[in-house]
Amino acid sequence: MEAIPVSLLFATLGGLIILSGCFSGSETALMSLNRYRMRHLAKQGHRGARIAERLLQRPDRVLGVILLGNNFVNIAASSLATLIALRLYGESAIAVAAGLLTLVILIFAEVAPKTLAAVHPERVAFPASYVLWLLLRLLYPLVWLVNTAANALLSIIRVRVEDVSAAELSQDELRTVVNEAGDMIPRRHRHMLVSILDLEEATVEDIMIPRTEIVGIDLDDPWSETLERLTNSQYTRMPVYRGTVDHVMGFVHVRRIVGDLVRGNFTPEDLQARLKEPFFIPEGTGLHTQLLKFQRQRERVGLVVDEYGEILGLAALDDILEEIVGEFTTDPGTLTRSINRQDDGTYLVEGSATVRELNRVLGWELETSGPKTLNGLILERLETIPEAGTSLLIDGYPVTIVQTQGNRVKTAEIQPERPPSVQRPG
Ligand SMILES: Nc1ncnc2c1ncn2[C@@H]1O[C@H](COP(=O)(O)OP(=O)(O)OP(=O)(O)O)[C@@H](O)[C@H]1O
Ligand SMILES: [Mg+2]
Questions:
Q1: What band does 23 get if pLDDT is binned at 50, 70 and 90?
Q2: Is the CB of 252 under 6 A from ligand 1?
Q3: FRET label pair with 294: which of 3, 163, 259, 314, CA 20 to 30 Å apart?
Q4: Pick the CATH number of 339-414 from 3.30.70.2190, 3.30.465.10, 3.30.470.30, 2.102.10.10
């Protein structure tokens, strides 16, 4: 030992302190990496990110190797400092050396590298991952031993080490991530992404056209009327039934029969021969599920049925897509197929407008778990057969019934502003 010059001992001590700083820094860097960015970079082929991702799949092992290294160099540094103190000043200097070394390690090998790593985790973690990967392979048996012993100790006090990599984003977390993406994702796109998540919570009843609004062909009607209807139809697909839509026989696709219609002598039998099986959707089907079903079965519209087989309404692919991207409309006055802005700034709204549409277009926040349509809302408030001219407040907004049909509201006028005197309940 006598042969080693003190200067070499000092140099080694400095080297150990630097190494210790590298270990501390890489620990903090790996732990504060943004996991989603890392995964993204790894998918793009960034090698450092790929290795970091693999390392972090077993955090106990990386931590094991980092701590093993860190403790080893710290203890070695301490022994060295003791040796230097003994050589230079004798036993009395050992305590002073310990104090000094503590300070030096704290500043240069802990606080400074860890702060740096926390500020630039990627720049530290990715290069460090290469080294740690190598170290982990070299020291694996030792790390394994340390981990096993530590886990055994933990199990005595009933702490279980689960596979941390399984931690996935919940819906709400994902929503937060999207909303906090800030300028990285344009506002409209963020809106769409959140709408896709919201699809989970809505069902086909929320978007369907209620049965009273379904435009179809009643085979009991005079044939000349039916021909008229087929030729002038606004919709491409219509249910064909006898008497009521509950007795639906199939769907007619108007474009497919247009040739026959033009050629003339199109008979009810011809129509029945051209019908396509109706596509039924059980009530309560989530919009997400329904979207996939439409896609797989190559359907565009379907009839929503309840458990008794009664038809509740018609759900269309377009309407689910509108939930995600907003309305598809070319007419600036027509906000949706059932909400129209009038010149005086009020809205003329069909009774069949859905609560979700009202919320979306007018910026309302009506409860979507109650009635699904404006008509339903009005009936719930009035509790009587509605009459034209009746006014009421919905969520503080004045609504006037304009036209009724049978026992339901056909159209209503809505003031877009709440009168100042009206306080919103709750
Ligand atoms: N028979 C129908 N009765 C009432 N509303 C319908 C009917 N068919 C479609 N709709 C409504 O019309 C809108 C457009 O739907 P869709 O695009 O599927 O029909 P379309 O425009 O007639 O068909 P296409 O776009 O293939 O010509 C949807 O909002 C849907 O709810
Ligand atoms: Mg269309």
A1: very high
A2: no
A3: 259
A4: 3.30.465.10
